Every structure is written in C-alpha cells, then in structure tokens.
Amino acid sequence: MITVRTATAADLDGVVASCTALFAEDAAQRDPLRNQSWPATYAGGWASGLLADPESLVLVATTDDAVVGHLIGKFLPASEMWIAPRAELISMYVRPEVRGGGGAGQLIEAFADWARQRGAARLEVDAYASNERALRVYERHGFRPHSIQLTTD
C-alpha cells in the first residue's frame, strides 16, 4: 500500500534518489541539453532548499517506510503580471515497480489540496510531449494543454 505524506529532512536521501531516477528516465533521455551530472552534483542542495521553503511542497510516496516516489510543488502568488495565485507541479516520480498502484494520483490530489488551501486559482505542470504516460496521468487528474513550447537546436 502506498502512503503519501509531506517530506521531512529524514526523507532527503529518498527524495534525492527519486529525483535522480526521474532525471535519468525523463529529462536525461528527452533533452540533450540537460546536464547529465546535475543530480549527483546539485539535487541534494536543491531538495534541501525546497524542504525549507515555505512556498514549496515536497511530498513523498512510501511503502513500508521506503520512499518510492515524490512530488515537488511551488506556490506562485499573484503579482503585477499574474492577477491570481497559481501552483506549479515541478517534479513528480513514482518508481516503476509500484506504478499502477495509485501513487501518482495520491500525490497529485495532495498537491491539488495544498494548492487550493493556499488559494491557487490554477495548477500548472510541464511535461515532455514525448512522455505520453505522464501526459495521460496529468490529464486523468484534470490538467489540459494550455500552451506549447517549441524549440530548435
């Protein structure tokens, strides 16, 4: 059974391992401009900073107290450019051996609840166009295409 909860400092190694696995499976495979050594060099400091940031949410999905997934979100308050607050789902991963067990849905729902409690008028997530599995998961939870990023190398 998968349990989702807010991460603590004790979860840092598990969060970093989950972020590293996501990077290897997704960004490192889909974008040749990604720094392949980023996880080993920077993921620990990045995740540690997010745990301390009151505008960020770090969730872990666990089974038997082992981290099997994560979600990182950021609250974006209204500003001169944006008339309403938003929340961005920055990073989410569930280990392959527990996929299909509802972990992704639990993470997304916990993120959505957190964002709505803070007053977010919109939830946002970016995903690679070729990551069809992720796109299907997000669409099942109400996300719809809104903008498209075009690139050329």
Summarize the structure.
With about 150 residues, the chain is of the alpha+beta class.
Q: Secondary-structure blueprint of this entry?
A:
Elements: E1 3-6, H1 12-25, H2 27-30, H3 38-52, E2 56-63, E3 66-76, E4 86-94, H4 103-117, E5 122-125, H5 132-140
Parallel strand pairs: 4-5
Antiparallel strand pairs: 1-2, 2-3, 3-4
Helix pairs in contact: 1-3
What does this structure look like?
The chain is of the alpha+beta class and 153 residues long. It contains five helices and five strands. It starts with a strand and ends in a 13-residue tail after the last helix. The model has no long low-confidence stretch (mean pLDDT 96).
Keywords:
globular, alpha+beta, single chain, 37% helix
Biggest sheet, strands in spatial order? 1-2-3-4-5
Main sheet properties: 5 strands, mixed
Based on DSSP secondary structure assignment, what is the total number of beta strands?
A: 5
- Alpha-beta content class: alpha+beta
Q: What distance separates the N and C termini?
A: 43 Å
Measured as a percent range, the helix fraction is: 25-40%
Name the overall outline.
globular
Order of helices and strands: EHHHEEEHEH
Based on CA atoms alone, the radius of gyration comes out at: 15 Å
